[in-house]
Specification:
heterodimer, A: about 170 residues, mainly alpha, 6 helices, disordered N terminus, B: about 220 residues, 10 helices, elongated, disordered C terminus
Chain lengths: ~170, ~220
């Protein structure tokens, strides 16, 4: 049997806070007289005040009869701490199950990091190292960096040696 | 001089207890369980009142209160003590209650049989007359009707009224817990008081008209 809610009187916005204090008798005398004079000319505020007064009457008479919230048991704090401990332990157990996987993942990551550093070091050294003749090996070594003490084997080698000597002396 | 001593001692005592609580929080943040247990002891009553006031049911109050303290314990390290510990704790409590209501999808009670117009009108007369003593039947009826009036209110209005009027929270405390301005809380309480009789106003109106008509008939 739900009742339809009736439209209520709306108090003037600028007087609502004052009316809230006024209905509880918590208004300063100056403000109370200001509210009194406003109420004489404002039907809406007057009606809103009457409704709030009726509600306050019901609360004043009825609230002492209502059941308050239950009181905590004397052992509530102890039981709460026990629950907290048990939940914390369970959380610890849950993390304990994953612990070996976590350790493995960290070790794997560390090894990968070291390998990466080593590879990068090699790459950087290889890129910036001066390409000296000593670094060359095989048949090209003789062509680009012939041993100066060696006797040329044929006419081509003689020509190369002459050209290199000229280039070194700036006689291009 | 002697008269001013108690007035001076109150703020000092309060300051002491605030400082003591901050120290307890710091100790609990370092993982000292006895310190946290002391905090639970200090605030358990207010947490119960808050949970009971919002849920308006006796069952589950203890379980939710424990859940609140567990959450507080787990996130205590993040609490920077810029606000009072109690304000932070009560905010967590309110959120936990709202979560519970959302999960359980608790609907306001709808009563199968309601009081008659005459009963409502008679009880309103008793309440308005501010009679000092009520007989046991009247007490039971007034209690029953007020419970129904509160249950018919919109959720926010009901919670505010219950916390203020039944559980004894101050306007200032409610403003801090709900993150509202003090004046906003006052205005909401004023409107909520006005709405208490909303569901019964038509009945009261018709009963009054019924009373006036029968009086006119008698005179006629």
């Amino acid at each position: 049997m739900e009742m339809e809610i009736q439209p209520r009187a709306l108090a003037c916005r600028e007087y609502e806070t004052l009316l809230a204090d006024y209905v509880l008798g918590e208004c300063a005398p100056v403000e109370a007289s200001r509210v009194d004079s406003h109420l004489r000319g404002c039907r809406n505020c007057h009606a809103a005040l009457e409704e709030a007064r009726a509600g306050s009457n019901w609360l004043r008479v009825g609230v002492p009869l209502l059941d308050k919230s239950p009181e905590p048991r004397p052992e509530f704090a102890r039981l709460t701490m026990a629950r907290i401990r048990s939940e914390a332990e369970q959380a610890g157990d849950r993390s304990g199950f994953w612990q070996p996987f976590v350790v493995f993942a960290w070790r794997f990551a560390a090894t990968a990091m070291v390998a990466l550093v080593i590879l990068l070091t090699y790459a950087v050294r290889g890129h910036y190292a001066p390409r000296t003749a000593a670094g060359l090996q095989g048949p090209l070594a003789d062509v680009f960096a012939p041993d100066p003490t060696r006797v040329p084997a044929n006419q081509d080698e003689i020509l190369i040696m002459v050209a290199e000597t000229d280039h070194a002396n700036g006689n291009d | 001089m002697a008269a001013s001593a108690p007035a001076l001692s109150i703020p000092i005592e309060k300051r002491k207890s605030v400082e003591e609580e901050r120290e307890l929080v710091r100790m609990a943040q370092r993982g000292e369980e006895p310190a946290f247990e002391e905090l639970v002891r200090r605030h358990q009553q207010r947490v119960f009142a808050l949970v009971g006031g919002i849920l308006r049911r006796q069952e589950d109050v203890e379980d939710i209160a424990q859940q609140v303290f567990l959450k507080v314990y787990l996130s205590l390290r993040k609490f920077d003590q810029r606000a009072a510990f109690s304000t932070w704790l009560y905010k967590i409590t309110v959120n936990e209650c709202w979560d519970y209501l959302r999960k359980k999808k608790v609907r306001p009670l709808v009563y199968e049989s309601d009081l008659s117009e005459e009963q409502v009108s008679r009880l309103d007369g008793i309440v308005s007359a501010e009679r000092v003593s009520l007989n046991p039947n009247e007490r039971a009826e007034v209690k029953q009707l007020l419970e129904r009036m509160l249950d018919r209110l919109p959720e926010q209005d009901r919670q505010l009224l219950v916390l203020k009027e039944i559980e004894g929270f101050s306007v200032q405390e409610l403003a801090e817990i709900l993150g509202l301005n003090v004046n906003t809380v006052k205005v909401r309480l004023f409107r909520a008081r006005g709405r208490i009789l909303d569901g019964y106003r038509r009945r009261l109106g018709s009963a009054e008209r019924y009373g006036a008509n029968s009086a006119a008939n008698r005179e006629g």
